[in-house]
Amino acid sequence: MTMTSSVRPASRPAAPPSAARRKQRGPRTTILALPALVWYLVFMVGPMVAIFVIAALHWPGMLQPTSFAGVDNFRALFDDPVFWQAVRNTGLQMVIALPVMIVCAYMIGYYVAQKPPGHRVIRYLLFVPGLISTPAKAMVFYAALSPDGLVNGALKSVGLGSMTDAWLANPDTALYCLIALDVWAGIGFTAVLFAARLDSVPEEIGEAAQLDGAGHWRAMWRIHFPVIKEYVGVVTMLQFLWTLFGSAQQVLLLTQGGPANSSTTLSFLVYEKAFMESDLGYSQAVGVVLFLAGLAGLLAIRRAFRQSY
């Protein structure tokens, strides 16, 4: 008797439970993220597109009719000496404020991360500038830098009365006073961020450096800095954007761009043209340049720190 055996077709292996769960989770995750995506498109991408649209319009005021201008606003922009003065001032602000802020904040953060006596109090004190509103910060600097302020009073008390000046009213010093305010306002908060990141570095790294005879200076720059280099790049990007786009507040409160446009920055020029001179098209043409400058700066910082984020 011949026995025949039926061969069953190989059954398809069942998908792992984790893969099945991931497939089910995909649509749910998209649905949950949909409100945030809509918010981002409406309030982030929308205004970004509006900058480029308004820059191509003649718009002499919020309630005034508009007309198409093409590249006329950009022609007027590049022929305007005030714009080029604002470019120089903004470039100088970035070149001075950003390196000073990041380097000093890192050094202070490293010191705090070593947990010296009273390090908890130092962390709170470093946060103080971040707890003060921008108008209050401006008033502090106005009181210090006015002709009868603290700086001139200190110079007179040590016999340097000839060096006193109206710091905010002098074209040679007004911009540097604003840069000093930027550094003072950002250095403490940035130092606390660096200290928090340095706290997560394994203690074995520092102990190994001490056994090799490395002092604090070498350990700070040769050992710990490479470990948190990615984080330094992120913080540098954030401070670059904050200084580039947020300087208009200090300029408006302390100098209003003067004297003789010596302290006018690109971000303040956007405000000035839009709300003081009611030239919205020109204002957003400056906004396009500011946007491109911010993008170029971020790419340059990313390249400098050679990161993959």
Keywords:
about 300 residues; mainly alpha; two-stranded antiparallel ribbon; 2 strands; about 0% strand; globular; disordered N terminus
Short description:
This protein is mainly alpha-helical and 309 residues long. The chain is built from twelve helices and two strands; from the N terminus they run H-E-E-H-H-H-H-H-H-H-H-H-H-H.
Strand order of the largest sheet: 1-2
Mean model confidence by pLDDT: 86
Q: What is the 3D shape?
A: globular
Tell me the strand percentage band. Answer: under 5%
Helix content: over 70%
Oligomer: single chain
What is the end-to-end distance? 73 Å
- The radius of gyration is 28 Å
The number of helical elements comes to 12
Ranges where pLDDT stays below 50 over 5 or more residues in a row are 1-6
- Order of SSEs: HEEHHHHHHHHHHH
Q: Tell me about the largest β-sheet.
A: 2 strands, antiparallel
Find the count of extended strands (DSSP E, 2+ residues). Answer: 2
- Secondary-structure content class: mainly alpha
